[in-house]
Amino acid sequence: MTKNHQILATKSIFLILGILLIAANLRGPITSVAPLLDSIRSSLNLTATQAGLLTTLPLLAFAFMSPLSSKIGHRIGLERALMVALVLILVGIMVRALGSISALILGTFVIGAGIAIANVLLPSLLKRDFPTKVATLTAVYVLTMGIGSAVSSAVAVPMSNLAGHLNISFMPDWNFALVSVILFPLVAILCWLPQMASRTDPAKNTAELDSHSYVWRSPLAWQLTFFLGLNSFVTYIIIGWLPSMLMDAGYSEIEAGFNAGLLQLATALPAIALIPIMGKLKDQSLLAFGTALIALSGILGLLLLPQFATVWVLVFGFGGGAGFIVGLSCISHRTHHTHQAAALSGMAQCVGYLLAATGPILIGSVHDTTGSWNLPLILCAISCGLCSVFGLLAGRDRILENKQSGAIVLSDAERA
């Protein structure tokens, strides 16, 4: 290997490490709230609907920032835009640490804005720098994202208990637990700094772009959007309310928090199974369909046999996580180039997260009205069924095309 090849290999290793550390921040600051939700509600006198807003706010931030994220990336470069994302996550955690209701809401929204930028731009970065390994690296970074969120969820209650034992008086115990996740963005920022030194020049990285408005007229784009949106709709409902569901079913707070962490880990496990096969599949229809059905079986298990909740948490997490990986991979497989991928990613995440944002509040309201988790779980099951249909459509071997007649899709064979 020549010296130049060694330098390139080293840069690639550090770039991948940086990507994985960014990925570790893309759920943890949000999912760490769920195991502490009852404590937060008691401390701040929140209703179930208001508590659901804490899970919904990041999704609203995702929806608001997703269309802007690709523009930010085009204007300042992907590397600097991702650094902005990490700084926003860090600042959001610090604001949230102030402990008031307004600070909690504002900090949560800022965290969501930072996560949204990274969510949109990471697939674009992978397509640009690792075009032949998109599926594999997508699976790896989703695995890292799941591990980061699993750790954050699993240690939330123990960290809160630790604050109580240490008699920390300047903030509530639950707030100490939320602040502890600040370590993740700090480490990621330090490791991403070398990428800033060799950042892509936006003038060279970004060609003159059209608005990509044709993406919004494409049936294929909408099919992928609803597949990801319904997947997120159900996933964030379960992430936000699983501990409350389990405690109402007789589980202790520690057991509920453990299962919340297990859920996050389960969403990461599919990456291990999908890494060897995702790069080889041009048609992901059956895979997308199957992941939604697995998630559906986990929901039905929680509804009918809650005494085996740990099993159903693993099943749902595996199906939901696999669907998310397949959906992200489809963004790259359904597009020609980096800018088109960023446009499709922005659309899918904007509309998808707007849909998902309704979930936690809707379910909180339904639970308050019925006093039971049965109807909320039935609604989740129906959503999984719809998700499987859109997965069949979105996973087909088609590519977005921009032609004057509008957005059409062609298979590889048709393009040949």
Automatic annotation (TrEMBL):
Domain spans labelled Major facilitator superfamily (MFS) profile: 13-399
Give the matching InterPro entries.
Answer: MFS, MFS_Cyanate_Porter, MFS_dom, MFS_trans_sf
PROSITE patterns according to UniProt: MFS (PS50850)
Transmembrane segments in this chain: where? 7-26, 46-65, 77-95, 101-122, 134-156, 176-194, 220-242, 262-279, 286-305, 311-331, 343-363, 375-395
Gene Ontology molecular function terms on file: transmembrane transporter activity
Pfam families membership = MFS_1
Entry keyword set? Membrane, Transmembrane, Transmembrane helix
- The protein, known as: Cyanate permease
Originating organism: Shewanella psychrophila
